Amino acid sequence: MKNKPSYSIKNTHNSSSYSELEIENLEQKLTIDSLQKQNSALVSSMEIMAHNLAILQRAVFGKKSEKSCEDPAEQINLFDEAEAGADTQPGLDLGDEDEAETDTSSKPKKKPGRRPLPANLPRKQVIIDLTDAAKICPCGCTLSLIGEDKSEQLDFVPATLQVIETIRLKYACKGCEDTILRAPAPVTPLPKSNATANFLAHVIVSKFEDHLPLHRQSMMLDRQGVEVGRGTLCNWVIGCGQLLQPLVGLMQKNIVSATYVCSDETTVNVLDDAASKSYMWVHMGGDRARRAVVFDYPPGRDGKCATTFLNGFAGAHQCDAYSGYNELHSQKGIFCVACWAHARRKFFDITKIAKTPGLAHQMVSLIKKLYKVEREALDLELEPIEIKALRQKKAAPVLTEIKKLLDAYKDKVPPKSPLGQAIGYSLNNWVDLNVYLTDGRLRIDNNDCERVMKPFAVGRKNWLFSKSVSGAKASATLYSIIATCKANKINPYNYLRYVLISIKSATTEAELSALLPYNIEKSLIEQNNLSQSHNSA
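Predicted structure:
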């Protein structure tokens, strides 16, 4: 009996020790689970950062083109997809590669060789003859001219500056000595400015089309002995922007009255703007015939910018998935058309980095089939109703296949991974991505608008910023004029040198409307161009 208490205590002690070990083991298991989750999150974050780094490296050092690469071995193997386990399932069909990469374009290929020089360029003949001694044959006879060998070389004559002296004759009456008359002053674009319309057009096109900042133009003029400061050039550009603003106002009205509009936006640095980040917006008529393009510089980037500019618009609005357009799309009579180029780009970035083909490659291949339908419609020059029928027949089945794949893989990959984000983007905008099937006028992507914005982005790398809000607004006006000229296949320089003078005499809306790039009679621009060339000669 005396040994029982001792045994009982010992047993109790062992039981207590075992319980503590069990608790400690449980705590360690919880710690391990927590560390495993943290490790998994860090690995996923590292893979995403590696993916972004690879995209950045490709953007800096790789090709900018988004054309598909037929040979997977040529792809940049910098990063394997984080979702490789789900993206490389056995038997994953990448489609018929030969069919996917076949070019259906019927455009004839350009033949190699030197192109002839333009016939309209002035030509200066240089005749090279033999000396009189060389014209004597060894037999003693004089050589006779039997022909000539002609070749052409392209020469460059530096730009020539000239001064236009305007002499206004004055007359007086010697009888009463009260009447003095002077010939009227010529019309100039900017009052009290010594720049002609030709010179102003050159400055504008050099900056907004050729991306030459004004300080570089000032230095170039200085090398030719003409001192025109950058501040003076800035004032001239702003003055021309204000002079042409009524035309841009009419272009905005034409865009709002259309039933199909495309929009895009990008950043711009304006030093005197209180906003922390400023944006330049571009809106354009969807129809390619008689297209108006307007750049707009409003404060901020919220939904009010697009809503204010397109006040009164009703119809199809095409853009990327930026949430700033949600306010516009919530209005009655406006529906969104999403961009397949944006959806494709997210998968395309993965294909250029992944080591092994997977779902991203298959998606790019399927989306290419959608674009083959668009190419076929373009080559056949189909009407909108015919384009709609073609899309319903050939594009709709492909979209069904894409949707099945997206639904099948959406739960198999991490949502924040590159492939997960690409799948999420397409699924979140799926309804808007299918809208283009309903109307043959609508396009599959918003690339037209992005192409219009590209010259602005290229120029921004050169001139870096706008000093003032008025300068940014003038830039928006002049970019609008040049972009609209290019969209309607009009030489911006010839257009500006004519309109900067003609707009001074346009007093009604009808007269201003007749000066718009898609309304103006091209013969007027050509006549003015010939007249200016004759006067310069």
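Summary: Residues 219 and 227 are 8 Å apart (CA to CA).
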